DNA sequence: GAGTGGTCTAGACCACGCG
DNA sequence: GCGTGGTCTAGACCACTCA
């Protein structure tokens, strides 16, 4: 139980060699950092209950209000989930009441009902070596081992027939994802990121997407059952775990004839 | 200076006819509502300094901490901007150090420098009547007066030549935007939403976008100087002012050969 | 130095979930 | 009824801005 600072009021934390700016950091930020460390270290695992504010306050030798502000920020970043009367939990993709937290493609008719969590078909799951481009995105070196997955998501149209709507290629660093197979992915109930959490201990925290309009090649058009001249959304995503470490590169092709990519700006 | 509640602790606010649930609302939420009212009423205008926390606390008969929490939330929603040592200001699109807060199209080479705030050409600005579709999006009735604007944004390519990249059609309710002309828009320095603020008193607070991949018609292809078979991003935006009132419908076509739509997920 | 927002504390009470 | 997070208060001190 490290006492993060000495006095009562905040002080410039550790002195970094060149102290151009004293780099004042509020106490609650330091507490936030300490909590983050424990999350990264896997001390508190996704879905688990973390110590109560009062206990954390005692442990860190600060007031409950200071812990509260640290936890507030972490909850705002979707790393923790507060539940009044129960406690504070490590956020998870498993039972996140919003399934598909990162999937912004929604049916045109505002039906959020999501007719069954989409049908997934895994076309490929192989171990390969990272190209320069893939390596750069994942923070690896060219030639490093990576897992490559290709899958198709189909959504039920009006009649109930499944329409292939998303074609995705995933690249994952070979180390953490050793042992990933199409069978394991196909057999898993729930979001892919939930599988990554429970089976590989990798929790995706945030992601960046680059979106373009493109035409599919013959292969892609065939898989998505569209004419070659059909414009599609190209969605390139890099997903990060704790500490801004990239852990997934994903290239998706979205049909937008019955769905659209929805984004809220503020 | 209305005292929002009677006692010391929070109480269920006004009793709504059917009191199925007492609808408990924290004090700071009520304060937030009161501040919002004043913002909507234009009592504090964009860019202006609002009263200090201490004065607001006195005015509302609550503690500074309660005002602080209300202001914190409003700042989080980009309605207010806090500046330490100076005060709290009403947010504005004018000098928002991030120009183009709602424009997510960025050059492929991560250069955020934004080579000159884009060159704008206004092709049209006319008063028309709302179609059923436009009316629905803007919360009007079919046939109501609307302003319709068509413009092209061009960005400098490597050499320095301007490349037409965005073709946008805007629809605005005729009432608030009476007197809008292409000349006024062309002559205005700064973001369009800043013009709306200073010239028409309409402040855009948030927006929703629906994105698809499409092919341009002959007209559109000509304006954007692309082949007819070039896939483009279709970005349909509804922008809202206070109180979730829609005030703009915007349909954009984005070229994505040198730029991409960037989105951060968390 | 005065005024503003920012941090930190300590204590009280409330709403919620659960046994 | 207990423990949790949620709200509210009052007061102290710190960091920043500007005259």
TrEMBL record, chains A, B:
One of its GO terms (biological process) is negative regulation of DNA-templated transcription. GO terms for molecular function: DNA binding; DNA-binding transcription factor activity. It comes from Pseudorhodoferax soli. Residues 25-93 form the HTH gntR-type domain. Keywords: DNA-binding, Transcription, Transcription regulation. Signal peptide: none annotated. SUPFAM superfamilies: Chorismate lyase-like, Winged helix' DNA-binding domain. InterPro entries: Bact_HTH_transcr_reg, Chorismate_lyase_/UTRA_dom_sf, Tscrpt_reg_HTH_GntR, UTRA, WH-like_DNA-bd_sf, WH_DNA-bd_sf. It comes from the Bacteria. This is GntR family transcriptional regulator.
